[in-house]
């Protein structure tokens, strides 16, 4: 099968090539992949940005966490959906390929007729937005800040927080470029950074880290929670003297870390998210879409920070 493969000798650390078809084990289905989406973290890993505690996958590993397609071969143990079912699938690797063997616990069912390219944007970005927002607690009537809002996670987070009844403040480094789109997704305010907030917030979903995280923490109301989802800035966090006093600036505020891979039981949420796309309640429109031979363009744009939102690779 054709796939996007880890290859250190390539400029981006990735190349399109042939590799062996995957063989599903018990409890796995074989999916004929129709579309896969790229995430900044995985392409950065291929390009050599390996976070502490993580290894770069071996050469020839198929890139990608997110893929959608149809079940070509059902699981031999009788679990999971039958042949022909449209599904969206999650995993650490193996997505950007014509075929994917995936455990039934890592897939959601997609309503028939839903664009599988849109569905393929959901696993990492959609699940992260949904589950990280839940860490904040109930959102109805709360002021919620989403940083890095123009990105894959940010766009879903703005929509889901708005749907949940929050007053959503979106921050983006370029409000002129992204403001209208973010308001259309449900942002009540679009600002250039947390420092521009006029009122405190009850919760933060931070995709950027560094100075943005510190500023966002300062904007937290008492008992507020900041979920540290992403570290796109590549900066460390330097809190000032007094930031963590928990005095009049806000008692009992928390910063919690988040790792999607540690949250488990992905199927029901993936099915729910795909249903939201199907009903039109969730906009999963990619920012870039093209074939496998053009995937290098999307990888370069993601690494160069010129692509905001999801990139979808169509396969067959
Ligand atoms: N913890 C987890 O389990 C988990 C899961 C998924 C993703 N993540 C991480 O969460 C972050 C967001 O993921 P994503 O897929 O939404 O990424 P993305 O599409 O690349 O979006 C990241 C956004 O961060 C903002 N940003 C601000 N300063 C930046 C800088 N110096 N460099 C790059 N971006 C900057 C940009 O938005 P503006 O231009 O609007 O400011 C950008 O669109 C990434 O760091 C990713 O690795 C973590």
Automatic annotation (TrEMBL):
Enzyme Commission code: 2.3.1.94
Main enzyme class: transferase
Record has Transmembrane as a keyword: no
Gene that this sequence comes from: eryA
Keyword Repeat attached: no
Keywords: Acyltransferase, Transferase
Protein name: Erythronolide synthase, modules 3 and 4
InterPro entries: ADH-like_C, ADH-like_N, ER, GroES-like_sf, NAD(P)-bd_dom_sf, Zn-ADH-like_protein
